[in-house]
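## retry 2 of 3
previous attempt timed out at serialization; input unchanged, resubmitting
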Amino acid sequence: MTAMRGPSRLTDQGESNHSVGNHLGYRQSKGTKTSAEEISDLYTGLKQSHLTDFDLMLTGYAPSAEAVDAIGAIGRDLKLKASTKTGSFFWVLDPVMGDEGRLYVNEDVVPAYKGLLRDADLILPNQFEAELLSDVKITSTSDLIDVITRLHKNYRIPHIIVTSIRFDPSSPVIYVVGSTSRADGSPRLFKFDVPTIDCFFSGTGDMFAALTVVRLREAVSDEGLSTIKSWQSPDEIDALDLPLAKATEKVLGSMHTILKKTELARDAELEKMSGPQGALEKDSEKRLHLRKTKAAEVRLVRNLEDLRRPAIKHRAQALGKRERWNPAKIPQMTDQTE
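## retry succeeded, writing output
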């Protein structure tokens, strides 16, 4: 959980409350999970010191339903505190629960997250998490549109981005679909087609969420929407002109470039490890996995310029109920990262 105050930039610092030790890509972990009581106590300490003048909060992985409830109580308290000044607090909720049909958390975390949806301003589920929240299996474009429409109307969520969408596991393209609702709850849908990268990364969901926070606030400020409830654009604004669509373009631009550079660095590092005697192939399965995981750690800090000035390679495309979006007919994209 991260909360921020003041104008956000890529260099800004926020207050962080971490709910887990290290990432699990290494198939082993140390450290402790932050309990619901500890999360609440930390926030109480901030309140007692008058340090809760936050105007934006990003919440992600929570290890238990009780922790999700504790985070929800914090979010609602901050929203209540900001209720006298429209647009002065914005909650980005990343409902981290699982991926590719597998839960990372206990089953009781799912209804706990559903209980927070009405209070969030933007949610960032992946395809599997969107299915869990909507109780609809996504196997087609029409299913996806139905899911986003349901979430907008049933929970009054102003902004939604669904990531890592893939109808065919062998597809060389994944899809990112977003929407900002109109006053009647109807969606304004846009999509991005992003070429896959043949490399396993850990933390890309966190990277996407963090960059979205900064880029959305930037786009909202540019459009003069910072004092509007939930930063919602007027109904007449087209899907492709939404701040959410413009922000996502920059986020994907930064991410794709940095992940491609990480892939190249990983390949070079593994080649160096292999050596003339093929030492890498002689490693135990566990050691080999650890080496590969380390080599694929995202090269974020050394590529800060790609965060500050992203190359826009993926443009938003309109997606509506009358459109026939057939992923099989999308032409092969040429990667121009190098």
